[in-house]
Amino acid sequence: MSNNSNSIKYNLETEELNLIIVYADSTEQYLKKLKERVPESIYKNKTEIQRIISVTNYVNSILEHDGWVVYSKNDPISILNKAEVGGKFRCVEFSILTAGILNSLGIPTRVVGLKTKDVETRSSDAGHVVAEAYLATEKKWQMIDPQCNEIPRKNGKSLSIYEFQQELYENGEKVDIGPKYMSWIKPYLFYFDVKVDQRTNYYQAVSNFMKKAEKRIMLVPIGAENPKLFQQKFKIKNTTYINSVKDFYIDPVIK
Question: Which pTM does this prediction carry?
Answer without folding.
Answer: 0.93
